[in-house]
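ESCALATION

Customer reports they have been waiting on this structure for their group meeting. Please prioritize. Original submission:
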Amino acid sequence: MSAPAHLLSAIDPLSVEAIDGSSYPDEFKAPVAGRSKRRLGDALGLKNFGVNLSTIKPGSCSALRHWHTRQDEFVYILSGELVLVTDDGEQALCPGMVAGFPAGKADGHHLINRGNIDAVYLEVGDRTAGDEVDYPDEDLAARITPQGRRFMHKDGTLY
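Update from on-call: job pushed to the front of the queue and completed.
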């Protein structure tokens, strides 16, 4: 009998369950329906930062275009090709390329798979408390409430 994944120091990333889609309100789920994440950091018991092995199917994207108030993000492209969309425009990312998004920089970003094969990348983010998320292209924000982080309209009403 093997030890649970969270007790091991090394694991096969494909042994971690893939979580499909997102927790967005229903009207925002379609663009990311072809995204799956394997939460490697959680499986290894990491507390200070998260690591996801993410896959994006053709025609899907990583997230709605967004930026974080307190958390840094870093991505490393493993396979396939993705298009990074930011306020500055678009940039093609191929295997071996990296991208980083500093906390508090109001530059919405996301990755789109416009190719015809799955794209896979590592996504790393810190777990700074109090992080909120802005979605510049949508009537959507993730805000801290007494019940935890919740999705809201930009006027503050809950979804």
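Sent to customer with the following note: The first helix runs from residue 40 to 43.
Escalation resolved.
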